[in-house]
Amino acid sequence: MKMETMKAARIFGPGDMRVVEMPIPELRSHDVLCKVVRSGICGTDYAIYSGEFSFVRSGAIKFPMTPGHEWSGVVAQAGAEVTRLKPGDRVVGDTAVSCGACNKCLLGAYYDCDDIHSVGTVNTWDGAYAEYIVMPDRHLFPLPESVSFDNGALVEPAATALSAVVKAEVKLGDTVLVHGSGPIGIMAGKLAKLSGAAKVVITGRKDSKLKAALALGIDAAVNTTREPWAEAVRGHAGAYGVDRVIEASGSTELLKESFALVKQGGVVSAVAFYERPVEVLDVDRLVFGNLALRGSAGSLGTYPVILKLMDLGLLDFGSLITGRYQLDRVGQAMTDMKDKNETRIKLMLDMAG
User: Fold this and answer.
1) Are the C-beta atoms of 188 and 179 separated by less than 8 Å?
2) What percent of the chain has pLDDT over 70?
3) How many helices and strands in the chain, by DSSP H and E?
4) Could you tell me whether strands 96-97 and 90-93 are parallel, antiparallel, or unpaired per DSSP bridges?
5) pLDDT tens-digit series, residues 25-47
6) Intervals of CATH 3.40.50.720 along the chain
7) What is d(CA 245, CA 259) in angstroms, rounded to the nearest whole number?
8) Among 99, 201, 223, 308, whose Cα sits 20 to 30 Å from the Cα of 17?
9) CA 119, CA 66: separation in Å to the nearest integer?
10) CB within 8 Å of 30: residues ≥ 6 apart
11) CA angle at residue 148 from 157 to 166, to 5 degrees?
């Protein structure tokens, strides 16, 4: 099989994205060439494109680069030493690529690698805004036949949401508050319910997004633009507040005010990017409330759980897709990420046309 070039959407600098023809990377012995079928458009991708992402300003993201870390596809070609995957297999890919050679990698602790590259983001391994992506076989996961390519491309944000739920230590009978009605927030709310939460309350600013959350089984929604949200949350959760908070909105105010809403001994799990320092955090409340504040930045190691839940029919996030684009319309997708914020939840590149 010989393919020399492919189309890819490359970012050459803030506001400068172009669909170009570029060489397909050479396959090493343990690499796999995958034909991309779906590639989700993440808020991080847009922030890289717009230049608003803090890692663009710090220089941690080098241009030109190909974004795209939420994807599903089909194996097109396998390296000489790949044994567990073959052409035609359906797959999803990890969000990072380890070196495969350091001591940690040799012990199988890929996510502790000393030279790790993030797919389509920081210290970039070129991502899936392209016809093909090359990944080492150790970072690919089989996509069950029962799971659609749409849901396959949503495994990464779902796994990120699961990491936040795990960090929050959600237990049977808990009351959970989720801030943010984007994909991560909605998915975290659903996964908190599956983890045993008795009640999940989600906050957001857009009615259409909150309605989508309720349709997936989240118990209550609060529109922060129309009512005193803390009072409304207590109305759902009770006077003592909530057991766990998952902060997926990126609002420094919601993060800070969550300390007053969480019960003694509770946990606040932050899974958003804030783009600026959080000032005047109530550390006394953290200490005397015996609270835990935990950051949750990624999804490494949690794909198999999400894939199993999807295979069992317990997770289906296809309803969150609110727009589809072919690769040559990726520029329009970036525009819509900003202009359609009222209704946009998850936009998807459909590489199959």
Assistant:
1) no
2) 99
3) 12, 17
4) unpaired
5) 889 999 999 999 999 999 999 99
6) 161-295
7) 9
8) 99
9) 9
10) 79, 81, 82, 100, 136, 137, 138
11) 30
Can you read off the two tokens belonging to residue 149? 């390519």
CATH number at 5-154+317-350:
3.90.180.10
Task: Say whether 303 sits in a helix, a strand or coil.
Answer: helix
Q: How many residues does the chain have?
A: 353
Q: In this predicted model, which residue has the larger pLDDT, 342 or 17? A: 17
Residue 207: pLDDT above 90?
A: yes
What tens digit of pLDDT does each residue of 183-203 get?
A: 999 999 999 999 999 999 999
Looking at domain 161-295, its CATH architecture is: 3-Layer(aba) Sandwich (3.40)
Answer whether residue 275 shows pLDDT above 80.
no
Distance CA 292, CA 156 (A): 25
Tokens 């309803």 label which residue?
A: 319
How big is the CA angle at 58 (ends 54 and 59), to the nearest 5 degrees? 120
- The 10 Å Cβ neighbour count of residue 30 is 17
Return the structure tokens found at 126: 């070129």
* 36 beta partners: 73
